[in-house]
């Protein structure tokens, strides 16, 4: 089920068009200004990363190197450090989520990231 993107020639804004079938002949009007003068864009796509890809891109998270903060898995370490710098205690709920994430259990909002 593709989502096509169209750019409006009149207002320049992007319109997303969802369809249940692949159709190369689809032409969507602009959802912002209603113009029929739209052209289909090349859409972005998602890519899955392996553990090796992540280590190659961000470095080994266990090394704690200067770029470890770039690894999304290190958000807990970053949060702990910031709270410590400000002399504040980490809220219990945040502590539980960080500890669970380190054990491989992620909260529902971030499970599919």
The rounded Rg comes to 22 Å
Helix content: 25-40%
Widest sheet: strand ordering:
2-1-3
Count of DSSP helices? 3
Mean pLDDT: 78
The main β sheet shows up as: 3 strands, antiparallel
Encode the helix/strand succession as letters: EEEHHH
Overall number of domains: 2
* Overall SS class: alpha+beta
Report how far apart the termini are.
Answer: 20 Å
Shape: elongated
Q: In percent terms, what proportion of residues is strand?
A: 5-15%
Low-confidence stretches: none
List how many beta strands DSSP finds: 3
Q: Which characteristics define this entry?
A:
2 domains, alpha+beta, elongated, 3-stranded antiparallel β-sheet, 113 residues
What this model shows, in words?
The chain is built from 3 helices and 3 strands, in the order E-E-E-H-H-H. By secondary structure, the protein is an alpha+beta fold. The relative contact order is 0.10. The model has no long low-confidence stretch (mean pLDDT 78). 27% of the residues lie in helices and 12% in strands. A 3-stranded antiparallel sheet has the order 2-1-3, with no helix packed on it. The chain has 2 domains: 38 residues; 55 residues, no CATH class.
